[in-house]
């Protein structure tokens, strides 16, 4: 239960109308009942607001709240930013009992910070260090010598591998795996794939060889304020560590291979895959399903549209798209041209026929 | 052990020949021994049948079963439909002991229906409601206030988040995560990616900003008869719920982001990714690796070929393909033209040279 | 702690300089301290070596180790192969206590080989057989009647399904799922997607139908020396088994659907997806995010670049790329032509205008 005045304070904005209005939850405009705070931060939601039964709402700056039949409102200039504040204030968070559950196994030498919550069947390995106020949900595992900072939230079944080092305020959604082994194999002689990459397509003579494993001696190093989505995987490095910079957010089913160095404040959207050994700058946004080849460099502030396949170096600030990736405007020009191509080929054939027919008199 | 007559009854078809033939399992025609019921529902499998030792088989309608040296057969008009009936009849299902395993933890206020089977190290949260005959395999977790209907099957390590609501006959393969948090972040000022999306490519001046989290207050709502594949993830909504309609089947490693609304009787094949906030109609089939951008609408009865990237609205009944998605016939025409393009560019160059040479006499 | 002479012996190469040099770990050249063995197997790492404090290193064949200020070195002809030997020698491996942890559940009739290590909360199903020296980490589960050979390593939360059969030296990274059900559904009448595939795009009249499940009676059969990455999934077959040949290595988040038959010594890189019923030869390398359609055949020694979508048969030894896949050289020619297309369309339009203008005098 919260009041309009309280939510206004959370948002750092004044309330308009009746600040004593009480709500039990937030709701979309059309679904909002009398006890719901309607969230309608853009005029496109306004009509839905009229059809609902909301008495109070968060609206866009300049909205005429009385016109929607409301008793009160808070007006905000930047809708999504207001959403961050509202949802943070109203999120009950996962229910976790304080303390260490009796079925949790904490191995010798592990150190847990103040006020941690460790759920049932959790396993904390030998010499692990976990900071204050960590919340570790059921069946998560943290292997030997790993370190996690303060205020961590590990959801059910998260796997933190040996010697992984993670900063403060880390969040991992269920099933995320940090610190699996890198995927790195070699054949005794040069393999077909090595030859094909070197020659851009020619494998030469094929020999029958098996793969030998290159083990991962490195680990994973993650900065503060990082979040990793459900069932995503981040592999350990071969010699040095795979690293994820402060503030970077990783969505579900993302794969970060071994030895990658990801910068700060990046967004890696769902199903992004980064092969191995690449360097990615700060504030890079990779849309859903973006693929990044191994051993390349992506600058700062790069934005890649969904489905982009990045095979080569990308410079600071570029907005890219396509497979292989090119600048977005180049991609759109190529695509528009391709749409016109079937018709253009007909025109070309007509032209050739004409020229050929006309060519008889020697002029063309 | 089952007889030919019994399997005929299962299929709702008459048997031919010896209905007392006994089998212990089904097998492919070439591998079938004397105790195996051979499955050969299309003439293309007929020769393999001759080389095997099967005495009985399921064959296509009109097949001459005696000609294959069989003692009996059941003839079926629609092979895959018969497969559904046969495999359902012969599947032993996972072994699960009745009752609640002594190591399972059932929190206060949780209600389990009749005849449930709850495996070792399972955790059922506070106030969870689970219907009759549910089978919950080892180490699955169901968080507080979640509801699951009758006849559910949750395999090992499935994660059901808080407040998720699921209908009857739900099946989740190992490692599926229902109800992780949505991936939703915002910067204090407009970010480069927002500007690039608005301008189709121009980020303007880049500023250094970090991401603030938008929490997920909504949950996930799933209809009856839904199946979710291994290690797939379905995120909760921001304010309202992410929803999956009745009868929809989801393959492995699929990501359904926050606030999506998926219709009924859809098929989402392996590694499909649906970003967030999109609406997908009924009976939509998305092939493997299809990507769907955020906040778009896909109509009913849409079919998208494998690897299609959908960035814009798709109308009812369209069959689409490519990246970006276009109608399949358009995609094929574009592709055929592209195959011819290198040669066409040579022809164009020749033509230009000719015209230029011919142009000297003033005609062209 | 190890000496230069010892690592030389591991590599089967002579050491140069002081064989008694002692190291505690391996390190990259620039980061190497006095107690680290620097790994710098290519001249491109040479400068970093000068700036570090390493006293000993592994270098490329022909390197002048004294010139880098080192006291000793081992020179190797093939860098990555040397990496395999060095990392194998120095990898401590995951910490696992010998024997069966008291919280592990081993069901009746299960047989564990000599010297196994079974971690906390592991579940071994009825009649499972596991070979000698297996290491099964916390919370992994092996379902009824599964068989795993000698020297297996199952990391945390791995799921092995019922009746799965696996050879020796199997490695599964955290969260891998072997033996989930296949994704196979059928409608009573022919569905829109079946019609669209048959007609290449035309669904005909759409009817409202629901999907009936085809159960998976088959299992998964895996040869010796196979590795499966974190959160990858391999589905069981419908009637016969899905199979993975000896020596094949599978990266993270890979999906192998039902009834696929994968050959020996293949590499399936991150996020590869193989739909169902396909046959893949030996020594095939599929780059990251490669998709393989259902029911196709890929020959031996095929190499597919990252992001390739394979819809049709591929012959032995082909190096392919693109969506849909074509030979790499064809793909590059098509792509180069596409880059030139926008300009070519302008040229074509100019030419047409010229011809039209010139056409007035009847010559063309």
Automatic annotation (TrEMBL), chains A, B, C:
It comes from Jannaschia seosinensis. It is an enzyme of class 2 (transferase). One of its GO terms (biological process) is lipid A biosynthetic process. Its EC number is 2.3.1.-. One of its GO terms (molecular function) is N-acyltransferase activity. This is UDP-3-O-acylglucosamine N-acyltransferase. GO terms for cellular component: membrane. Keywords: Acyltransferase, Lipid A biosynthesis, Lipid biosynthesis, Lipid metabolism, Repeat, Transferase. The keyword Magnesium does not apply. Pfam families: GMPPB_C. Residues 102-180 form the Mannose-1-phosphate guanyltransferase C-terminal domain. Gene3D superfamilies: Hexapeptide repeat proteins, MurE/MurF, N-terminal domain. InterPro entries: GMPPB_C (IPR056729), Hexapep_transf_CS (IPR018357), LpxD (IPR007691), Trimer_LpxA-like_sf (IPR011004).
């Amino acid at each position: 239960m919260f009041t309009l005045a309280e939510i206004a304070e959370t948002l750092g904005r004044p309330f308009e109308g009746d600040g004593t209005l009480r709500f039990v939850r937030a709701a979309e405009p059309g679904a909002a009942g009398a006890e719901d705070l309607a969230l309608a931060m853009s005029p496109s939601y306004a009509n839905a607001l009229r059809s609902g039964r909301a008495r109070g709402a968060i609206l866009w700056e300049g909205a005429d709240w009385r016109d929607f039949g409301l008793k009160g409102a808070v007006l905000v200039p930047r809708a999504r930013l207001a959403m961050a504040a509202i949802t943070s204030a109203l999120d009950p968070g996962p229910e976790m009992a304080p303390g260490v559950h009796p079925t949790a196994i904490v191995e010798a030498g592990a150190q847990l910070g103040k006020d941690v919550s460790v759920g049932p069947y959790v396993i904390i390995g030998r010499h692990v260090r976990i900071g204050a106020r960590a919340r570790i949900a059921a069946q998560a595992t943290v292997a030997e010598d790993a370190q996690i900072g303060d205020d961590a939230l590990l959801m059910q079944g998260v796997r933190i591998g040996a010697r992984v080092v993670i900063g403060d305020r880390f969040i991992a959604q269920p099933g995320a795996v940090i610190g699996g082994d890198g995927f790195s194999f070699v054949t005794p002689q040069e393999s077909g794939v090595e030859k094909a990459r070197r020659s851009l397509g020619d494998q030469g003579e094929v020999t029958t060889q098996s793969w030998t494993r290159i083990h991962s001696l490195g680990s994973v190093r993650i900065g503060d304020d990082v979040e990793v989505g459900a069932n995503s995987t981040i592999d350990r490095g071969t010699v040095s560590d795979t690293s994820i910079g402060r503030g970077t957010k990783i969505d579900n089913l993302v794969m970060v291979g071994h030895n990658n160095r990801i910068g700060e404040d990046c967004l890696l959207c769902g199903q992004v895959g980064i092969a191995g050994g690449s360097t990615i700058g700060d504030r890079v946004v990779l849309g859903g399903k973006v693929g990044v080849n191994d051993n390349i460099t992506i600058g700062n502030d790069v934005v890649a549209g969904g489905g982009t396949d990045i095979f080569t170096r990308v410079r600071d600030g570029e907005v890219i798209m396509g497979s292989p990736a090119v600048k977005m405007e180049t991609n759109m020009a190529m695509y528009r041209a391709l749409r016109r191509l079937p018709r253009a080929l007909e025109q070309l054939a007509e032209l050739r026929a004409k020229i050929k027919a006309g060519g008889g008199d020697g002029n063309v």
